[in-house]
Amino acid sequence: MANGGKGRSVSKPRARVPRGARAPYELLLQEVLRGQLVPGEVLTEAALAERLRVSRTPVREALTRLEQDGLVKRTDRGMVVRERSPEEILDIYEIRILLETENARVAAERRSGLDVMTLRRICSDLETMDTDDPTAIAEANREFHHAVWRSAHNESLMDLLSRLDMHLARYPTTTLSDPGRWETSLSEHRMLVDAIDARDGDKAAAASTQHFTAARDIRLRLWSEGKF
Fold first, then answer.
1. What is the pLDDT of residue 169?
2. Could you tell me the domains of the chain?
3. Half-sphere exposure of 47 (CA within 13 A, CB side)
4. Do 1 and 35 form a contact (C-beta atoms < 8 A)?
């Protein structure tokens, strides 16, 4: 499993960052999401400040923001990267299914003609792309779902979905690599877009629920197989 033990050293090298580069929060956020800061690792202000070549104040502020994001937590050993678990997967998907379903319903009501054109273009691109690169198909799939979010024209929903998406990024294995999932996913995308185009909120909601429930079940099975 990819989970790190308590206080274990990082398995992936992290280069020292020159002063004036990206803010400590952005750098540490990416290191958490990419697994360079491993689950269970203790985050020490002094050590991070030295590596990033900044004072401890911006590091402290970055760790506070990461705690607010739910990516690190405060313990008796200090700040540590949150562990990953099947319970977290269930929690994330329970909320995501609710929000994605509501977003799809709202998108069917508020979408513009341009939104529909964009969704159909992305669907077409997905159906013709090379599927040999899991990272590429995951990113293309994310583009589709972000376009669905935008079609709802609801900033609050988009903000909440973006935060959940950030938590799922801690589980890098894409469910789209599961045998047959890519083809099924494309079919579910088409159903969703057709419903949004027809302004059928109930069908859009049902298509979204079906899509993300299937993704949840695959994600949990991948976890049980140690493929997360």
1. 87
2. 1-83 (1.10.10.10), 86-224 (1.20.120.530)
3. 10
4. no
Distance CA 146, CA 143 (A): 5
- The pLDDT of residue 6 is 40
Mean pLDDT of the chain: 90
Low-confidence ranges of the chain (pLDDT < 50): 1-21
Quick check: helix, strand or coil at residue 95?
helix
Alpha helices (H) in 53-130, listed in sequence order: 56-69, 86-110, 113-128
The radius of gyration of the chain from alpha carbons, rounded to an integer in Å, stands at 19
CA distance 21 to 183: 41
- How many residues appear in the chain? 228
The pTM assigned to this predicted structure is: 0.81
